[in-house]
Amino acid sequence: MKKIIIANWKLNGNLKFIKKYFKKLIKYNKYNKNNKILILIAPPIIYLYKIKKIIKKNKNINLISQNIDKNLIGPYTGETSPIMLQDIGIKYTLIGHSERRKNHKENNKIILKKIILAQKNKIIPILCIGENIKDYKNKKSLKICKNQIKYIIKKNNINIFKNIIIAYEPIWAIGTGQIANIKHINKINIYIKNYIYKKSKKNIKNIKILYGGSINIKNIKKIITQKNIDGLLIGNYSLKIKNFIKILNIIKNNNEKKK
Ligand code: PGA
User: Is 256 assigned a catalytic role?
Assistant: First the structure.
């Protein structure tokens, strides 16, 4: 199964940066087409169209939006609609990243609206879940993550998870250099996978859960070899193309070892 590797640029990058980044990434991709990795790059939305033109037929490299609005069209200044993403050929979007939950007061209700809207418009949501430091210390991680999923099932339908990728991102690990340990990540991922599996009466089997939070070259090997971690959501470390390619190479080598 392909590992999904997302580079989340957040509020970084400019045209010069993009030119350099994609020159190297396209070159890497030319020689590594069969690396069994789904590469997703999430630049600021304003650059998606430009980059789409740069990557042209490089099918292995996909683009992902960092966010969408909960509305499709109308008087919503400053927002981006999933129809607009579809219009320019973008097939994925992050939803509910903890920075949006915190800085833009996005709650479970708003997040659910966005998931529904994305799916209706053929955009695959990458739903971010995760607990804060207080809940982690109080051993409430499982409960918090489960509740984020449970809300969606309760207010909508379990079938919504047929077409969602989940990213487990403990808030206390994002941008802090403090990565969650393997045991903890596995515990959450396995629990959430089983939870959805059971709730769907064993209909939804292939739930994909990525990990995100302070990934770098030193800690990636341990993480990527875990069978219940289906990929990575990388912020800061993905900003240098040299580093991002190092990560892709490690995953590629690991895939080859498994053959
Ligand atoms: P980080 O960010 O890798 O810089 O910790 C991850 C994320 O927010 O997705």
Answer: no
Catalytic residue among 79, 97, 104, 184: 97
Give yes or no for a contact between 48 and 75, defined as CB atoms under 8 angstroms apart: no
Distant-in-sequence, close-in-space partners of 27: CB < 8 Å, separation ≥ 6: none
Q: Mean pLDDT over residues 226-247, rounded?
A: 97
* pLDDT, tens digit, 9 for 90 and up, residues 165-218: 999 999 999 999 999 999 999 999 999 999 999 999 999 999 999 999 999 999
Instruction: Read off the tokens for 27.
Output: 């070159």
User: Beta-strand (E) ranges in 66-205?
Assistant: 92-95, 124-129, 165-168
Q: What are the E-state strand segments in 31-161? A: 37-42, 61-65, 92-95, 124-129
Report which ligand 1 atom has the smallest distance to the Cα of 173.
Answer: 5
The dihedrals phi and psi of 211, each to the nearest 5 degrees, come to: -120, 145
97 is catalytic: yes
Q: For residue 202, how far is its CA from the centre of ligand 1 (angstroms)?
A: 32
Pocket test for ligand 1, best of 66, 129, 169 (most atoms within 8 A of CB): 169
Q: Output the pLDDT for position 59.
A: 82
pTM, two decimal places: 0.96
Active-site pick, 106, 169, 184, 256: 169
